[in-house]
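User: Quick sanity check before I run a bigger batch. Here is a single chain. Can you write out its predicted 3D structure?
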Amino acid sequence: MSLTLSLLLLFVLPASILPARVLAQNKTLVWRRYDVDITVMPSGDMRVVETQEIEFLSGTFTQGYAVIPSLRTDEITDFSVREGDRVYRKTDSDTGAPPYTFYVLYGNGGVDWFFPKTGPSIHTYELAYTVKGGIPQYPAGDELQWKAVTSEHDFDVLASKITIHLPPGGLPIQGRIVAFSPAGIAWETPDQTTVVFTATRALHLNEGIEIGVAFKHGAIAAPPPQWQTAYDREKAKQDILNLISGLTTALALLAVPLGLFLLWYLAGRDPAVGVVPEYIAEPPSDLPPGVIGTLIDEKADTPDVVATLVDLARKGALTVEENAKPGEFGSVKRDYELKKLPMPDGLAPYEQTLYNALFGKQESRTVDSLAGSLYADFERIRKQLYEEVVKRGLFRANPETTRSLYRNVGIAGIFVFGIAGFCVIPLFGVEAAAFPCTAGVLVLGSIALMVLANRMPAKTRKGAGEAAKWGAFRTYLANIDKYRDLKEATDQFEKYLPYAIAFGLDRRWVTMFSKVEATPLPRWYVPRYAPWPMRDPGVGAPKTMAAPSAGGAAGVPSLSQVGQGMAGSLQSFSDGLVTMLNSTARTLNIQPASTTSGSYVGAGSRGYSGGSFRSFGGGFRSGGGGGGGARGFR
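Assistant: Done. Predicted structure follows.
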């Protein structure tokens, strides 16, 4: 390939595929003024005159254009273009059209006009045309609505004024003079049949002005526009649709909270129970700790499994031996060795699963060694705990299944109502804009249902009674130092320790009793504190935390050492199992309009329309009028 051809492809080809608007960026202009004068004739025709004062700032221009949609008109005709005293001549072709001519686009959809090459300078162009059948007629008032200044212009419009001349007898109706524009629009009526709109600031890209004036019916001596019948039919349909959507939104705002409350009241509320004492000083029934923890908070979670493990130890199924090793900077690193003993008879399925998961065919396991194997069994244990509370008649249905059901219904509702909200406007138009609001309320209701799912597991009457009584027992355990002299309750330390763990009171429980000298250590717990090994010869008579002599007998830990170590190590054991389960979970990527005419506007009336397409009266709606299109220069 020759060097010349390569350079041609390198520089010319990219330029040829650039958007025309990018290439035209070196052409700039500004509308110094964009005024529109609309005269409504008794025939119903509108003569529209657009006066555009243009300052070409840079580049060369040879053509102006106006694209005018025929929407909501019968016809647009009688185009003319002039610049000062020079009247442009109509031409039949836009190919090679000479200066001072204009060409009407196919179907009267707009006009192109041509002038000599023009650089930086100021020019005023006047574009005029007649709109036939552009004003719908109603007994309550005829309605002129027109996009006088289009929003499709490439450069700013510094000032704009729209003047409306109504036919004789066409008095504007009070409250039905409107303007839609991001810019503030002021209006006034200098006489009884003239309305003047003025922009209070410049119009920037994508900003235009749409005006609306309703005036007394009968001033137009002509039949309604041809398109009005179909338009009114569609408008009535859309109004009904909008009313329905508004009512459904209001209904949803009332029905969703009420429905959620009734759902909980009928399906998720626990039965009422009789009077229960403030506290109960002994277990009110033979329910095991894991079941009690699941019953109280309606969830089978880690504390329930730890409580079950300690309960198995209390039943003689295993012992827990602490191994303490020196760590860095004088710290102590603890691990716990579980030693297998014969399985007791009469264990529930979840207890058997935990026992087998802990040991399998081995005789002992450390907690650290369980990290890679126990998590899958932990899920089975949780499932069996839920089955156990249902089997014992404490819940109407599996609590986890109930939560999942309502949570999944909520998720489905978010997707269904969310998608429906997005699809309504494309299918039914902007008049159905309230339907997305309805969908939004239903989406919020679905989210609320997901939250409510945690309250939907319902206890049976038996379950509610048991929960109330065990709640009173929890109060006793939490405040045992208030109800009993701890020195006389040391026998309850080991007996009620599994319940304290299930209730989340383990640290408080151990700490309270560690301060009592006569509290026996659990038979199944073997602590080891360097340099004093303290081992249990077997699961037999309880070990008593006896105080040493005043001088401290050699090889025997002091009471405070044993007590404080017991409090820290048992809590550390419980925390260690939680840490182990969470660590395993991370390893597996498991995260456990107006109908009456009203009064008429007199001369000298004034008004103002703020920005953001805000209207102030009548049945006009933004985008509901004809006109608009695009304006520009090339």
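The domain at 26-217+602-633 is CATH 2.60.40 (Immunoglobulin-like).

User: Great, the batch can go ahead then.
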